[in-house]
Amino acid sequence: MNTDQIRIIPIINPHLTNANNDMLHVCWIQNNFVDIKIEETNYSNLNNAIIFLNKSINWKIIDKKNKGSAGYIMSLSPSILNNPILSKLHINELRVFNSKEIPIINLSPGIAKRTQAIIEMIDELIGTHLNHKEDAIFSLLNTFFVYCDGQCNIKSVISHNGSKKALVYKFKKLVDKNLSEFHEVSDYAKLLSITPKYLNKCVKTVLGFTAKDLIAEQLMMQSRHKLKFSYLSIKEISYELGFSSPEYFSYFFKNLTGISPSALRKN
């Protein structure tokens, strides 16, 4: 791997654009700091967003609202996606870089921090002469895309013409915002002013699994992270995530992962 195959540029210049049309681009945008124009559409208020842009799409950063870095542009040679390490990911299965629509995901704050750290580690490795650096970069790229897959969002794309996709996008944003308060599909259906049956139908059509599955996976990911990386007790974690009791939290977690919260902490 050489530096022509992967490049990472911090979003400091407010007028970055796809000057190199031979590359695929991943835009990682922080906390509403950037407005971006993709083809003829302006996107603003992007909160911890990752956008996948193929070679044929014209894009340009049109406004930067802070003085420091507002995120990163990771440019990839298409040949990188042929690496066996990346071959089984949804990014290849669904050919998101070849989509006519714009794949975009919004990450929860915790996942956003980890994906940012991965991008920064890749950038650091690119400038070194360490042994096995190529293997390390591919491993980090794999981890980056796995995190995106794990958000259940990489299978979804924004479409101004797809009402079901737009509804599912709103649903996922509501889950990110209200997960510690609402665990039931009916709660989110009420917020969206639709029936739970219709919400499940839309989510199943767009993502291939149910609204309940999406909520459960997000709860599991947040639970696992708090158990591994916080000093909160299991009881405190259960109430922070909105479970009615520590016992129900333990039942939920073991049912999804096969191990109890206390067993995870001992590993």
Automatic annotation (TrEMBL):
Record's keyword annotation contains Iron: no
Taxonomy, superkingdom: Bacteria
Ranges for domain HTH araC/xylS-type: 169-267
Keywords: DNA-binding, Transcription, Transcription regulation
Family annotation (InterPro entries): Homeodomain-like_sf (IPR009057), HTH_AraC (IPR018060), Tscrpt_reg_AraC-type_HTH (IPR020449)
Transmembrane segments: none
SUPFAM superfamilies per UniProt: Homeodomain-like
PANTHER family on file: ARAC-FAMILY TRANSCRIPTIONAL REGULATOR, TRANSCRIPTIONAL REGULATORY PROTEIN
This protein's name: Helix-turn-helix domain-containing protein
Organism: Winogradskyella vincentii
